[in-house]
C-alpha cells in the first residue's frame, strides 16, 4: 500500500520514488496549470483576434494584386450563419495553445524530470531547448513560402471562373504548412538522438545518405498541402541540409565515443593488427 499524504509532494532524488497518491496529486496540479494557461491564452487570442487574423491573411493579401493583374478574381469568404464565430473561436484556441506552450510544456517536464537521472535530465532539457527554436524556424520558413504556393495553386483557375477561398480552408492550409515545416525541422534531433542511443552510427548514416535524401524529397512531395514543386523544394532542401549537419555531428560523437572507449583499455589491448 502507498501511504496517503497531505500537502505538496516531496522532492525525490535521482531515480527515486514517490507514493502513488502523491503522483496523482502532482499530475492533477500540473494538468490544471497547463489547461488554465491554455484558457488564458485562448481569451487573449479572442481579444486580439483582429491582429492575429491580419497576420494569417498577410500572405494571401500580398499576392492579391499579382493575381488581379493576371486576370484572376479571388477573395477570402466566410460561409454559414455561425461560420464567423466558429472561425474566430478556432483561431483563438490554436493561438491560446501556442501562447501557453511554454507553460504546459514546462508542466510536462516538471512532472517527468524528477524520475530521471541527472544525465537524462540534461539531455532532455537540451533536446527541448533545441527543438523549440528549430520548430519555430521551420514554421517561419513555411510562412515565407506561403505566398508563392498560393500564387501557383490559384494560378490554375481557368478563365471565366472566380476563385472563392473559405476562411476555414485557408486557415487549415496555413496551419498544415507551418506544422509540416516545423516538424520537418526536427530531423537533426531525431538523428542525433538515435546516434546517442547507439541505434545508428555515422557510417550507417553515410551509407544511407542517398536513399535518405530521396525519401526526404518523397516526403516533401506528399506532406506539403500544395502540389507545386516550389513548396516541395523549400521543404526538401533545408531537410537535406539538416540531415547532413546531423550526420556530421554523429561522426564527431562516434569519434569521441571510440576515443573514450580506447582510453579505458589497457596498452596491450590497444594494438591492432589491422
What's the SSE blueprint?
Blueprint: H1 20-47, H2 49-69, E1 73-77, H3 83-99, H4 101-112, H5 118-154, E2 162-166, H6 167-184, H7 187-196, H8 202-207, H9 209-223, H10 229-263, H11 267-270
Parallel strand pairs: 1-2
Structure description:
InterPro entries: TatC. The protein is mainly α and 274 residues long. The protein has one domain. Helices cover 74% and strands 4% of the residues. The chain has helices at 20-47, 49-69, 83-99, 101-112, 118-154, 167-184, 187-196, 202-207, 209-223, 229-263, 267-270, and strands at residues 73-77, 162-166. Strands 1-2 form a two-stranded parallel sheet. The model is unreliable at 1-15 and 270-274 (pLDDT under 50).
What characteristics describe this protein?
274 residues, two-stranded parallel sheet, 11 helices, flat, transport, protein transport, transmembrane helix, cell membrane, proton motive force dependent protein transmembrane transporter activity
Describe the structure concisely for a colleague.
The chain is mainly α.
Contiguous helical run count? 11
In quaternary terms, these chains amount to single chain
Kindly name the structural category: mainly alpha
**Number of β-strand runs:** 2
| 3D shape | flat
Largest sheet: 2 strands, parallel
Strand content: under 5%
Task: Give the domain tally.
Answer: 1
GO molecular function: proton motive force dependent protein transmembrane transporter activity
Keywords: Cell membrane, Membrane, Protein transport, Translocation, Transmembrane, Transmembrane helix, Transport
Subcellular location: Cell membrane; Membrane
Family: Belongs to the TatC family.
